[in-house]
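re: that chain from earlier
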Amino acid sequence: MTSEREKRNASQVSPSESWVDEAWRRALEKTLTNAKRIGAGFPHASEGGRYGLAEPEWWTAGFWPGMLGLLYSGSGEEELARLAGECEERLDSVLDGFVRLDHDLGFMWTLTSVASYKRSGSEASRIRALKAANYLAGRFNLKGGFLRAWNPWHEGDRNTGLAIIDCCMNVSLLFWASRTSGDPRYAHVAEAHMDTVVKHFVRADGSVYHVVLFDPITGERQEALGGQGYAPESAWSRGTAWALYGLTLAYHHTGKADYLEAAQRVANFFLSRLPDDLIPAWDFRAPLELQELRDSSAGACAASGLLLLADKGGEEDGHVYRRMGERLLQALDERCGSWNDAQEEGLLKHGTSHYPEQRNLDVPLIYGDYFFVEGLARLKGIGPIPWE
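^ sequence. v structure.
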């Protein structure tokens, strides 16, 4: 159940329809401008006002075309659809090349091929997404009930027993594959992984672990690792958002009560840790002096997840989650939006990618931009939303 503090926060006035329309217009205009330079590239983090373009195999490759697709659905700007299609085609070399594929197949092909298939019924997109789903299901560790994270990218890496909270979002590709193909095996894998998330990643207070190490032979849980959070027992905010949204999606796809209860627990923890300005710290349990560093991408992801969660529980809690999702998006727009900075390509400032490695701190991140646009699309009733 939601706390009294959360109910008080939610009782404040939510964004008006005119605000949402204006925010959408600003995001569309800035993206159309950015598209002239970025084209069918793969932006990741903004440096000095310009998005650096990553290689197609990088895990964020789906977010730019995913955002283009959503903005196209809400505007009819054909150039956005054309560029999203080119990005999808560029990913063929990664999908067919195989060796660079890891657990993030869901992020990459849900936001490109699944989204394209839902918009247009493209058979080529359907086949791409099913191939990606097969590769993702092939990463399943039967003994441990988890999708293995990463590959041995460096000599000596031993990571066959690693699982991460991010995969809460990746499994939507598997649920889609079961519905589309009529084969329940994909959903079986997805549910088994999410059962493991509920059992081994979500703490009693709703905070979550980022990385959990299992014995890859026996499947036994060995330990939790810090990952991109401050410490193993801390609470990395974007990981919390992945869990909030991913568990809600798992409930959406299955109707399994355990997922809804866990999603609400995580949502309540996330909301209870927000500062007065609503922009989350990069880690909710980092030392106070480090919590001044925020992560707008965590807020954007959580906001879209909250808007979906609002439709899944009881009326009272649903009202709270919807209001807080709206208020998060408005706070991001007002405090992180780059609308008055023509020299900045990113839509949202103040993202934190990887604090432990000191990479991309206090900068726009393409996944923050994507989830901000997705949240606005939810408020405006624009779809399809690829994860669903």
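Confidence is low (pLDDT under 50) at residues 4-14.
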